[in-house]
Task: inverse folding
DNA sequence: TGACAAACCGGAACACCGTTCCGCATAGTT
DNA sequence: AACTATGCGGAACGGTGTTCCGGTTTGTCA
């Protein structure tokens, strides 16, 4: 029971006790996350911070306190779905040969990106507010996708010199195309071409 | 000589005589274009309008009068280099077999994009200020690149179901990757994969 | 319980930026 | 020289990200 005391850190080595966050702070952080989810769905991930704050019944300062970077808020909102997409890769790898698993997974990825307005664009925008996004995105997806690539390399159906860290950003960029591009190219067709290029020669 | 009169339109059918622009207006438009070229090189194509105006020794209103959309200014600044890139496609098609010509041309395109800071990103940003950019971009490049694709289809080395209008945006997106992505993937490698996928099966 | 310090809050304030608008200046014409 | 329409400058407006601080709330300790 005495373990509950904030002053008794589990890890004695850590510098200074990281006093527990106040209850109202966590409440507000969650309210902001929920509000952001709504607003992102309606107006995209680049919606004004003020609107998110207003929707959460909170001041803008509070938003920035819990989520200093816009990307922190985006990750918090989409983390679950992002991890689900990663699990799709794992499941598909178990049920299909590698090439087919990868092809099907690109659909899953495209679905994820298509339903998060502005996410794909933010991913390669270069905007500092989104800077940590690509790495976090990759961090979740790459391990599972790499597993498919490894299987494909092992059974000789895929080339071995492309890693998930290269492939996923490329897929993300190609997925972002489509009607909103101004040119009505079909995104999935170019993705299929890319996957064909991934086949072992 | 009487032909010089503004009141004598060459095409009688057109509605109203399009009075010639004033001399100071063309001077200013050119000064703005030159200033924009400098500023774009230093700060990217999304540099503040005010800075371009200041550099040109002109008010912001004057910038908007000659170039209502940001994309108008961008096109004006890069038109020559863009057309040179299109000519590269023509030249390469004459000197190499189609697949090799296309491979070399992607390098030319990547060079073009790499030296125009922010251009590639603007191309697929969805920002209304850049809306006409993709179409103008394609309008210049597509005819020459399509020629390569046609040659490749004719000699049986390339698949026939991909058109330049689909391929070029994809190449543009993949070229935009690289170190600035946050992930240090090598853009040219994924482009090579895409080109491999373009080979006839 | 009451008091106190640390943590936290709200939102005004500041710094930019794109874009518009209009009184004034000037080029071109008669 | 006088006149007109064309063009000019830059103030002004609306919107946005981000910071900052006086005041409030929470958790703790006596």
Result:
């Amino acid at each position: 029971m005495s373990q509950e005391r904030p002053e008794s850190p589990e890890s004695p080595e850590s510098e200074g006790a990281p006093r527990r966050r106040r209850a109202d702070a966590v409440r507000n952080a969650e309210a902001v996350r929920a509000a952001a989810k709504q607003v992102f769905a309606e107006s995209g991930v680049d919606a004004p911070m003020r609107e998110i704050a207003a929707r959460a019944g909170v001041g803008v300062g509070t938003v920035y306190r819990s989520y200093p970077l816009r990307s922190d808020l985006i990750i918090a909102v989409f983390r679950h779905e992002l991890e689900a997409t990663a699990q799709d890769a794992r499941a598909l790898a178990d049920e299909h040969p590698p090439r087919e698993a990868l092809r099907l997974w690109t659909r899953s990825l495209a679905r994820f990106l298509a339903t998060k307005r502005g996410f794909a664009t933010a991913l390669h925008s270069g905007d500092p507010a989104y800077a940590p996004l690509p790495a976090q995105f990759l961090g979740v997806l790459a391990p599972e996708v790499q597993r498919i690539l490894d299987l494909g390399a092992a059974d000789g159906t895929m080339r071995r010199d492309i890693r998930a860290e290269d492939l996923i950003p490329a897929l993300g960029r190609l997925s972002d195309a489509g009607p909103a591009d101004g040119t009505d190219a079909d995104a999935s067709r170019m993705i299929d071409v890319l996957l064909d290029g991934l086949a072992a020669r």
Observations:
- Confidence is low (pLDDT under 50) at residues 1-16 of chain B.
